[in-house]
Design a protein that fits this description.
Layout lengths: L10 H11 L3 H23 L1 E7 L2 E6 L2 H8 L2 H12 L6 E4 L1
Parallel strand pairs: 2-3
Antiparallel strand pairs: 1-2
Length: about 100
């Protein structure tokens, strides 16, 4: 009978290892960004958002309201900074509202 090792790992550590080994980091970042957008902007903005995508460090947000698009355009740098802080990584360098 083989001896069992008593090394304990947290589920978070095991998930991070699984994500890294299977090259799922970019996909997980995209999910985090979409969730963070909804959380940070609130339900009012989220209701007018049709898509949130990350393309080459540029966050592309598609909105249904031109008035909201204009209002958010004044704070693009702040939005990028807030989302980067929420995600815990510097993955967004530019925000494009379409």
């Amino acid at each position: 009978m083989s001896k069992r090792e008593n090394d304990s790992f947290s589920i978070e550590d095991l998930m991070q290892l699984f994500i890294k080994e299977n090259n799922l980091t970019k996909g997980m970042q995209k999910i985090k960004i979409e969730e963070s957008w909804t959380k940070m902007m609130g339900p009012g903005v989220a209701n007018h958002t049709t898509s949130v995508k990350l393309q080459n460090k540029t966050l592309v947000v598609q909105l249904t309201s031109s008035v909201l698009r204009e209002e958010l355009s004044y704070g693009k740098d702040k939005i990028a900074k807030m989302l980067n802080e929420e995600i815990g990584e510097d993955v967004i360098s530019k925000v494009m509202l379409v």
